[in-house]
Amino acid sequence: MKFDVRTEAWIPVRTVKGEEKMVGLLELFQEAHCFQDIDGDTPMETYSLYRFLATFLMTVFRPETWEDKNELLSAGCFDMEKIKAYIGRCENKGISFDIFDVKRPFMQAVPDESLDTEKKIKYVAVLDSTRASGHNAIHFDHNLENTVWLGPAEAFREMLTAQIFCTAMTGGYPSNVNGVPPLFFLPQGNNLFETLVLAMSEVDEDEKIAGLPLWESNFEIVPQQEVTKTTQLYGMFFPSRRIRLIEQDGLVQQVYYQPGLHFTGFAAWNDPHVAYRPGKDNTFFSIKPSTDKEPWRNIKSISEYYDSGSIPKVVDDFYKIRKECGFSSMPVQIFGVVTSNAAYLDTQGGLLRLDARILGDEKRRAYAVTYIDMAEKVGYVLAKTLNKVISPDKSKRGNGDVSQYLHQYYMGCENNFYKVLQDLAVCDNLEKENELLAEWRSFLQETAVNIVQEFEMRYCFQAADLIRAQQEKKFFFTSIKKILGEER
């Protein structure tokens, strides 16, 4: 069987009219300005598709500066002649776009009988963290792994996702170039064409630095071979897993699956879609998703370490492009998966509503950091108080409710935060900025107090409970008064 990614329908998109459609690579590039976005089954799959498409376009157009990206945007659609010419060059080099090609399957390990043995065959469910497979957590699908059969389109999408979001596992399975999967940041355009251009990173004019993408490279994927440094294009889809799909009657039930290349040069890799922040030894590390932290709160790190170059490169380019065009709105998508060792605990997806007027102004960025810092300090005290109100001992009674109420608190903070930022963006004097800060303090106090009172009414009925609640409320009021009364 042949499945050519250029013409076969395998990429799920949503049109600007809201209709769902499955398209091939060429149709997507041809009609990208008519599509709204990628519509994957999970945030992980959606991001992996964006990353693959962006890498492909980076290889074709090779923008060297953000101005080059802005020029691409001004065209309004992709130059299909350039794309087809690049594909022709690939074909002349013997590169196949067929995912079942017997000699060089697209985006997969080249067949090697000495490496691809029967012992390395696993069920295709191993590619999908949302299905039952081995010891993986099950999120959505409860079918046994040996009953799962996937069509070529879905199997290929899962393979891309497995490469980007793989984690270090026992048996010599390494993580990807970012270590534990980080939060990925992706600017959102008015349509899919704009989003894909904005997702592209500059490609260095030096071919040795730029390198070749996975599908062009002849570098052999040797299980557990240590790699200390990678090039720009190869690193975008670094093969930390050696994978090859096995076709059977037009479907995929099994795959060759084993450890891929072992990347160790984390300090040298700067991912264009990832945000960084300094650690204790002043080395920067990528921001990871957490079940205890809502994605919008990462605006604090982006704002606080903006001048140190920790902002994702594509977001920095987005800022420059928006500023050049005279626009302030900067919607940025976030994709992530929360992991614990090799287990996937939760997926995250969201939208940051950044503002170029704030991102480009040091003083306004400082205010944004202050707003979130206050919210987090109050949130910490709130969580501590709720846990003590709900139970005086170390029992786990009501822990789920504490998390639920804390999430409710941060949801309220997020909505109000963006409203305050709108006013902050147009402030032109210190007095108005201080008024906004006072309003934010008042909002945090009122929101947190209401939650504590509601919690008390729900859980405290006996005299001992009421006495304990009153004691904890004294601690709470004293703590938040100190937090909100601190000078900026």
Question: What does this protein look like?
Answer:
- It holds the Pfam family CRISPR_Cse1.
- InterPro entries: CRISPR-assoc_prot_Cse1.
- The structure is a single chain.
- The chain is of the alpha+beta class and 488 residues long.
- It has two domains: 11-268, no CATH class; 362-488, Topoisomerase I, Chain A, domain 4 (Orthogonal Bundle).
- It is 43% helix and 15% strand.
- It is built from 15 helices and 13 strands.
- The longest helix is centred in the C-terminal third of the chain and has 30 residues, at 430-459.
- The N and C termini lie far apart (66 Å).
**Would you tell me the structural class of the helices and strands?**
alpha+beta
- The number of helices is 15
Percent helix among the residues? 40-55%
The number of strands is 13
What share of residues are in beta strands?
Answer: 5-15%
- List low-confidence stretches: 133-142
**Estimated radius of gyration:** 25 Å
Span between termini: 66 Å
Mean pLDDT: 90
List the helices and strands and how they pair.
Elements: E1 11-15, E2 20-23, H1 25-31, E3 35-38, H2 43-61, H3 66-75, H4 80-92, E4 121-123, H5 152-164, E5 184-187, H6 192-199, H7 207-210, E6 226-227, H8 232-236, E7 241-248, E8 251-259, E9 262-263, E10 276-278, E11 284-286, H9 299-304, H10 313-325, E12 329-340, E13 343-355, H11 356-359, H12 362-390, H13 399-424, H14 430-459, H15 463-485
